[in-house]
Write a structure and sequence with these properties.
Layout (H helix, E strand, L loop, with lengths): L2 H25 L4 H6 L5 H12 L2 H14 L1 H33 L4 H8 L3 H10 L4 H19 L3 H15 L5 H24 L9 H11 L17 H15 L3 H4 L11 H16 L4 H8 L4 E2 L2 E2 L5 H9 L2 H39 L8 H25 L5 H25 L5 H20 L13 H33 L1
Antiparallel strand pairs: 1-2
Helix pairs in contact: 1-10, 1-17, 3-10, 3-14, 3-17, 4-5, 4-8, 4-15, 4-17, 5-12, 5-14, 5-19, 6-7, 7-17, 7-20, 8-9, 8-16, 8-17, 8-18, 8-19, 9-18, 10-17, 12-21, 16-17, 17-18, 19-20, 19-21, 20-21
Length: 497
């Protein structure tokens, strides 16, 4: 049996298992709250689900391509600095977010912020900005398409449409009651495949690590340096360390990540949940090391005289490196990497649109409408938009679909970071402080990126991490100034009384 036949067979089996889990979950899903939070789950299941949600197709499929192209600087940024910021933020924010979320009965991050600051405007702003996460849906869809189409030798557009139709289709029904269990299975599969990928290039080491480094240096000296001035994203310490650490801290403030703690059965499970998720994520982030193995296999970034695109690097490596038996397992690990995050995004984004955008527009009539049914139509709409944008990225990408996704996703969590930070740690923060911070964050992010306001955001390929880091700092300064002004005014008023 060749790779194509094995892939088809396991695709059918994989689809059958997912449909079974969704069917079980659908029987327990009657309301929008059931779809959002489920019935409460064990710490290990939610922890693995979180790890699966964070480590998406970007980690397993796209980011190794950046390492193959740009070397050690890309690995430091994406495999060390960014995860470090993420872990610190996850530990600091998860406990308090769950406590506030429990008290406010929030289903979404936008609703949490609205309830926390008693501001419908804050909830609407974050709900509107959450539409930027559609770019992440596109990244995952394109990444999965590259892997499956390479394995099947099939047309990329048709494969992409099939993936979106299948995943968005079954996510219309199960919600959280099936999501955490499908994520758990996907996380276990990803762990197995992560170990295979991390060890797949050990043969290149030959005599020692030093010999391997010399071979990379012979291919391109910048592959073994901390910074790569010839790259568009990893040129100096500011891009590699400062920006990626700030971005890593803010990544947690995505709805499919920060709200995971609300799925736990008890607040007592939070420490176990963090241990499980961070432990698994440490293994997942090491997968970007595979980019070095890709570069050893394709030193000129070509195969049979044809250039290997950055987004296709990992799929090409898998097809060329592994036998049919191991290859199909790796393919399904990469498939699980994308689908786990795709499922979480579809669930969280559709709930946000339904709960925080459509329901308020409906007014009193919302009480008479089955919002769970409305949510299904929202998912259908998201599927069509994802297909249209993914098609464009397949036929005409700007270096990588990762740039599009980073630009959209980074803008979103730049806007969400200060509301979450102030909501958790600043008890007297007024709604005006976080509203101003969110608006400034998006304004600064897109101004820096599209108006080319820095040397890092000029040219054909611009660095979204720089725009995001500057946006987050600007938002923090803005929010703090409004907070201090509000405190001053309140103190002044109390003295006058």
């Amino acid at each position: 049996m060749d790779l194509k036949q094995a892939t088809i067979g396991l695709l059918i089996l994989y689809a059958a298992i997912l449909i079974f889990l969704v069917y079980r979950g659908a029987k327990k899903t009657k309301t929008l709250k059931d779809f959002a939070l489920g019935a409460g789950f064990p710490a290990i299941v939610v922890g693995f689900s979180l790890a699966a949600s964070i480590s998406s197709a970007a980690t397993f499929i796209i980011n190794p391509g950046f390492v193959a192209y740009y070397g050690w600087s890309a690995f430091v940024a994406m495999g060390i600095v960014l995860p470090l910021g993420l872990f610190i933020s996850l530990i600091i924010l998860s406990k308090s977010f769950r406590k506030h979320g429990h008290f406010t009965s929030a289903l979404t991050l936008a609703q949490w912020a609205g309830n926390r600051f008693d501001s419908k405007v804050m909830a609407r702003i974050l709900a509107v900005f959450s539409l930027l996460l559609i770019t992440f849906l596109v990244l995952i869809s394109v990444g999965l398409t590259k892997i499956i189409s390479s394995s099947l030798g099939a047309n990329e557009v048709y494969v992409m449409i099939g993936i979106v139709a299948f995943v968005f289709g079954y996510m219309m029904f199960g919600g959280a009651n099936s999501l955490v269990y499908t994520n758990f299975i996907q996380a276990v599969l990803k762990l197995i495949v992560a170990v295979i990928l991390i060890t797949s290039g050990f043969g290149y080491f030959g005599g020692s690590i030093g010999d391997y480094i010399h071979r990379l240096d012979a291919i391109d000296p910048y592959l073994v340096r901390s910074f790569n001035p010839e790259s568009p994203l990893f040129r100096d310490w500011f891009e590699v360390i400062v920006c990626n650490f700030i971005v890593g801290m803010a990544i947690v403030c995505q709805p499919h990540i920060i709200t995971k703690s609300l799925l736990l059965r008890s607040e007592k499970d939070i420490n176990k949940y963090l241990i499980y998720s961070i432990g698994v994520l440490c293994v997942f982030f090491c997968v970007v090391l595979t980019g070095f193995f890709c570069r050893m296999m394709f030193p000129g970034l070509t195969l049979a005289g044809q250039p290997v695109r950055l987004d296709s690097m990992m799929s090409t490596y898998v097809v060329q490196r592994f036998s049919a038996g191991v290859g199909v397992l790796v393919v399904f690990g990469l498939l699980a990497a994308g689908m786990s995050t795709l499922e979480s995004l579809v669930q969280s984004l559709s709930i946000t649109i339904t709960q925080d955008l459509i329901k308020p527009v409906m007014g009193p009539a919302a009480e008479k409408v089955n919002l769970n049914l409305v949510n299904k139509f929202v998912i259908i709409g998201l599927a069509f938009v994802t297909i249209l944008i993914s098609y464009n990225q397949l036929v005409d990408p700007n270096l990588s679909v990762g740039i599009l996704a980073q630009n959209g996703v980074y803008a979103y969590f730049s806007a969400a970071f200060i509301p979450v930070l102030f909501g958790v740690f600043v008890r007297d923060a007024p709604a005006s402080s976080v509203i101003a911070a969110s608006l400034v964050a998006v304004l600064v992010h897109f101004s820096v990126y599209y108006l080319e306001l820095t040397p890092y955001t000029t040219g054909a390929v611009r660095n979204p991490a720089v725009a995001s880091a500057l946006a987050i700092v600007s938002a923090f300064v803005t929010g703090s100034l409004v907070l201090f002004y509000d405190r001053h005014q309140r103190k002044k008023y109390e003295l006058q009384r």
